[in-house]
Amino acid sequence: MSTPTPAGMAMTPPQPLPPGQLVLLTVAVALSTFMEVLDTSIANVAVPTIAGNLSVSANKGTWVISSYGLAAAIVVPLTGWLAKRFGEVRTFVTSVILFTLASALCGLATSLPMLVAFRFLQGMVSGPMVPLSQTLLLSNYPPQRRGVAMAMWAMTVVIAPIFGPLLGGVITDNYTWPWIFYINAPVGLFAAITTYTLLGRRESPIARMPIDGVGLILLVIGVGSLQLMLDNGNDLDWFNSSTVVTLGIITVVALTYFIIWELTDLHPVVDLSLFKARNFRFGVAAMSLGFMAFFAMTILLPLWLQTVMGYTPTWAGVATAPVGIFALILSPAVGRNIQRLNLRLLTSFAYVVFAVTAYWFSTFTLDTALGQVFVPRMAQGIAVACFFVPINQIILSGLETQRLAAASGLSNFFRTLSGSMGTAIVVTLWDHRTQTHAARLAENFTANGVTTREYLDRLSHLGFPTNAANAFVQNTIQSQGAMLATSEVFWGIAILFIALISLLWLTQPPFGTTGPARGGH
After folding, report:
1. What distance in Å separates the CA atoms of residue 125 and residue 121, rounded to the nearest whole number?
2. What is the pLDDT tens value at each position of the chain, 521 positions in all?
3. pLDDT for the residue numbered 13
4. For the purposes of burial, counting CB atoms within 10 Å of the CB of 467, is it exposed (0-12), middle (13-18) or buried (19 or more)?
5. Amino acid 234: pLDDT
6. Which residues pair with 2 in a beta bridge?
7. For the stretch 22-36, what's the b/e string if a residue is b when 16 or more beta carbons lie within 10 angstroms of its beta carbon?
8. What are the two backbone dihedrals, phi and then psi, of residue 207, each rounded to the nearest 5 degrees?
9. What's the Cα-to-Cα distance from 480 to each of 269, 473, 474, rounded to whole Å?
10. What is the Cβ-side half-sphere exposure of residue 497, based on CA atoms within 13 angstroms?
11. Alpha-carbon distance 393 to 151, whole Å?
12. Hey, is 2 helix, strand or coil?
């Protein structure tokens, strides 16, 4: 099924790029990754502004986010097939160019349907960008320096969604919302031109495989239904909604048949046989659950700051940003020494730090100052560097180079999906626990109770009118309920991280470089 190697390409693996070109490639690939991951979160804080400018409700405006996530979730696991069919370099460069064009179209949209359609297109063409950025770096770095390549890639994937809301808030507050999309243009053009110039003659082998139509349709239906359910479940009250129940049934049926079909088809659109590799199987499980817990913390912290503590989106973004400090400093050091480190021990240490900081957050109260949030959030940056670089090394260890694109695509699909699941779970759990605690607190605040009358009398002496005093009491009850819920959820996240440590130790060393280099270049 494979076509001959294109004329002009050597039959032996290419020499590593010179140091200067390798730095330039790393910058280009890292910027493209940063740009794509940034777009998963940069529009979040701008939704109210976008909805207002396009004359729609804020609820309808959330489709700007959902459409992007839905399309990306469908296409990411197809990365391996696309890379084999069209070549890794060609697929990556084409994806970057189309993503840049789709970004410009998003900025030019004049109605919500137009913007949602262009965001769906943007998410669809973005699918191969992150997995192939990882693959291209690993394929073109010398084997002894692949840890550094992994560190560069991990930094962009982790830091981008953290800075997304902050950057989105600054742009929306000081410019107009289309600029959150226009800023992709120079970055995308630079990344595409640079990558093709450096790697255009180092294309991977191309195999003219038939399209697995049945698998593709099942994937689109199953993943699409799952993403829609996760995006809208909380707003629709989950399984009390017939829509969510229907989406859940479709998801289970479609993905069950998809797995059966892909395991028996001669040319599957997604290579599920990767899960036969022990380190890939347990590594993806540990990474997905760990990222789900980390992302849940990243969602819950600004949610608490904005809805309970009264901070603006920009200041909430400032409070979450310090996690990037140690992540940026330590990730390259971890990458340079990846071959000398005990990766299971290092990742276990990261989970312990995540657990300690989650517990730290659970001790916060309504009197906690913004400056007190910085310290544990900054400490999480240490865990980020010790988690994402080693866990990706574990996942890809022992795999042949020609399988890197498929493995990276599949692992990134589970990372993306786990982020969506973490968001859905933490928002739902926090909301339900807030209402439960508020109801219990209200039970102790009866209209004729002695404590209630004393409290209202004190408010009256402070100058509160009766209605304002009652409103203040209700707001206090709700805030205290939300604070108790926040503490509980952070406690749960801490426990989850400790429990996940055992999963890491199911992987087996050695965790060295990937398998033999591909031929046919």
Report:
1. 6
2. 344 444 334 445 566 677 778 888 888 888 888 888 777 667 666 766 777 788 776 566 667 777 787 788 788 888 888 888 888 899 999 999 999 999 999 989 888 889 889 988 998 898 888 888 888 887 888 777 777 777 777 777 767 766 776 777 777 777 788 888 898 889 899 999 999 998 888 887 777 777 778 888 898 898 888 878 887 787 787 888 888 899 999 999 999 998 998 888 877 878 888 888 899 999 999 999 999 999 888 888 888 887 788 887 677 777 877 887 888 788 888 887 888 889 999 999 999 999 999 999 999 988 888 888 889 988 998 998 899 888 988 998 888 877 887 888 888 888 878 887 887 888 888 888 888 888 887 776 665 666 666 666 666 666 666 666 666 667 777 788 889 999 999 999 999 999 999 999 999 888 765 544 443 33
3. 53
4. exposed
5. 76
6. 207
7. bebbbebbbbbbbbb
8. -115, 120
9. 50, 11, 10
10. 28
11. 10
12. strand
What's the token pair of residue 418?
Answer: 């786990």
Residue 422: Cβ-neighbour burial (10 angstroms; 0-12, 13-18, 19+): buried
Task: Find, among 75, 81, 77, the residue nearest to 1 by Cα.
Answer: 81
Region at 403 (left for phi over 0; alpha for psi -120 to 50; beta for the rest): alpha
What is the per-residue burial (b if ≥16 Cβ within 10 Å, else e) of 118-150?
bbbbbbbbbbbbbbbbbbbbbbbbeeebbbbbb
DSSP 220: H
Identify residue 378 by its one-letter amino acid code.
M
Q: For the chain, how are helix, strand and coil distributed in percent, rounded to 5?
A: 75, 0, 20
How far is it, in rounded angstroms, from Cα 387 to Cα 54? 41
Name the DSSP letter for residue 1.
Answer: -
Query: 380: closest CA among 400, 420, 350, 402?
Result: 350
Using the CB atoms, write b or e for 169-193: b if 16+ within 10 Å.
Answer: bbbbeeeebbebbbbbeebbebbbe
The reported pLDDT for the residue numbered 149 is 76
Tokens of 280: 């890939």
Q: Do residues 69 and 177 lie in contact, with contact meaning Cβ atoms separated by under 8 Å?
A: no
Half-sphere exposure of 286 (CA within 13 A, CB side): 30
DSSP H helices, 39-87, are 47-53, 58-61, 63-75, 79-86
CA distances from 261 to 77, 208, 413 (A): 15, 20, 19
How far is C-alpha 163 from the geometric centre of its chain's CA atoms? 12
Exposure of 458 by Cβ count < 10 A (0-12 exposed, 13-18 middle, 19+ buried)? Answer: exposed
Q: Residues 452, 453, 455, 456: what is their CA dihedral angle, to the nearest 10 degrees?
A: 110
Give the number of residues written for the chain.
521
